[in-house]
Amino acid sequence: MRLSRSAKVILGVVTVLVFLFIYVPLLLVVVNSFNADRTFGWPPRGLTLEWWVRAFDSAGVRGALVSSLWVAAVSTIISLVLGTLLALALLRYKFFGRDVISLLVILPIALPGIVTGIALNNMFTTILGVSLSLWTVVIAHATFCMVTVFNNVIARLRRMSGGLEEASADLGAGVFTTFRLVTFPQLRSALLAGGLLAFALSFDEIIVTTFTIGAGDTTLPIWILQNLFRPNQAPVVNVVAVVLIVVSIVPIWLAQRLSEDSVGIGAARVKAKEG
Amino acid sequence: MAIPTQHPAPGAPRAASAVPRPKANTFSALLHRSPRLRLAGLITAPAGWLVLVYIAALAALLITAFWTVDTFTGKVSTVWTADNLVTVLTDPVYQRITLRTLWIAVAVTVIDLILALPMAFFIAKVASARWQKLLVVAVLMPLWASYLVKAYAWRNVLADGGLLEWLGAPIGLQSPGYGETAVILTLSYIWLPFMILPIYAGFDRVPDSLLEASGDLGAKPLTTVRLVMLPLLVPSIIAGTIFTFSLSLGDYITAQIVGGTTQMLGTVVYANVGAANNLPFAAAVSLVPIAIITLYLFIVRRTGALDSL
After folding, report:
1. 154-213 of A, contacting B, C-beta below 8 A
2. Residue A97 has what pLDDT?
3. Structure letter (DSSP) for residue A228
4. Which of A45, B167, B215, B281 could form a Cys-Cys staple with A1, CB 3.0–4.6 A?
């Protein structure tokens, strides 16, 4: 099949237009965070740093930022431990129920976020009678962040041969020494990539969070949702939105450089289900 | 190495074995001897977490859908009834909301398909290898930006005096304002990369030699696309539609932000968890998208699309 020159040009133009469609709205948020006009009429009449200063001075924003960072960090640590254990177990051992468990681990991302959200909300409030807090958010986030770590670690393990570990055991290293000195160094970049993805996923998660967060707590996405409809907060909302964009894209960029497995279509699927 | 259990002291090799072994009484040695114990150590925590937190929650959700709320105390009472499900399925209000949600999901899927096909084709088959890599990254990056921020970005784009009005003014186009059209536009925007990527991967897998053979045998490009490419692409296209369709079905944030008064299944679920405080009813409503998605997955399973997810 040989495409004519004009067909190629038309396809190219369509591609450029779709890319504009993808990027312009995000750039608009970035530009508006400097827009001097508080109603964000387009085109902007002047630029200002005032909203960034205001966001920085806002105790609400700072508190939400700290909560978001804390939730993302704790969920990442939990999911790093659980995801690695699970990947080692599923790849290195054959046992009864192995297929069921490998299906279980993708379930939190196979079902829409709203289902995960309401299921956990119902579990905490109706069944267990636990009051919602940042800890319930951590439990929810760790459940789906586990998958990103699991995916990264299992992809790395598939490419590693078990020979080095056997050699280590034959040379007299115990189980833990082998893990520390042989397995872990080979997994390190996969763990870092998986951890960064988990962090990014948790940091800007909104759907499951709205169902599992306590009444008095706010993460950055929750703060945006609460202030979205207040006209006098609009400029600061823009700034917070830009922070969310940056904090979610930079780890992804880093993760991609660290490990080819992390930002492929499989990883996109994880993101797809959790927003 | 200063770990005495794993390394014999220098100068004092044990005569019994040529290879130094961990001392038999350590935990590490116990693990070494018993693969089952190693497996148990690995699997207990993650499997326990998944079952106790997630599976239990899903089971409880299913059960709660058959409970009810005491109208006086506002507490969930564990009286078994199918009333919630009956209301969801038979009340015209909820039927309308279900149909509207389905319509929005289908519209979003079709729009994304129309946008993604030419673009994925260009990236996979026209662009040079170097550009191909760059363009794929350019599709992936915004995919990771927050869903909330994207919906918010469209609130700005669609606003009175916003970008869309400014762009549309010369050709007499107006912003649709906040409503159903805005929801469809915004959801199409948010899920577009999830449609582009699997279709791109599908195009990429079609060997060039096949296309050349088709051309050599006299097929015009459009005929080749229709008779050679599309049949090979069906699983990838369906994989893309699974994303756009099922993600749109479960949405409620976008509907809140740009939907005005538009009600979707997700907004009903959210309203019943929060303000209305009727968890059993919310659970019943949430079973509707689960059922639709399961049905859809069941239908498309034969095409092999699930393997290309």
Report:
1. 169-177, 200, 204, 206-207, 210-211
2. 80
3. T
4. B215
Least confident of A81-90, A105-114, A189-198, B253-262: A105-114
Contacts of B229 (CB under 8 A, 6+ apart): B203, B206, B211
Cβ of A86 within 8 Å of Cβ of B123? The answer is no
- Asked whether the predicted pLDDT for residue A34 surpasses 80, the reply is yes
Q: CB contact, 8 Å: B64 with chain A?
A: yes
Please count the other Cβ atoms lying within 10 Å of the Cβ belonging to residue A103. Answer: 10
Q: Is the ipTM of this complex over 0.85?
A: no
**Among B13, B118, B265, B22, which residue's Cα sits nearest to residue A10?**
B118
In contact, A117 and A212? CB cutoff 8 Å? yes
> In chain A, what residues touch B221 (CB-CB under 8 Å)?
1-4, 7
Whether the pLDDT of residue A252 is over 80: the answer is no
Q: Which residues of B touch A93 (CB under 8 A)?
A: 35, 38-39, 42-43
Give the residue ranges of DSSP H helices in chain B: 27-33, 35-49, 56-64, 83-90, 92-121, 129-144, 147-158, 163-168, 180-205, 208-216, 221-224, 230-249, 253-258, 265-273, 279-300
The pLDDT score that the predictor gives to residue A229 is 84
Share of chain A above pLDDT 90, in %: 19
- Please name the member of B118, B162, B252 whose beta carbon is closest to the beta carbon of A11: B118
Of B47, B76, B152, the CB nearest to A224: B152
The average pLDDT across B49-69 equals 87
A35 in helix, strand or coil?
strand
pLDDT at site B13: 47
Q: Which residues of B touch A244 (CB under 8 A)?
A: 145-146, 148-149
Q: How many CB atoms lie within 10 A of CB B196?
A: 26
At A218 the three-state DSSP class reads coil
pLDDT at A176 over 70: yes
* B22 contacts A172? CB cut-off 8 A: yes
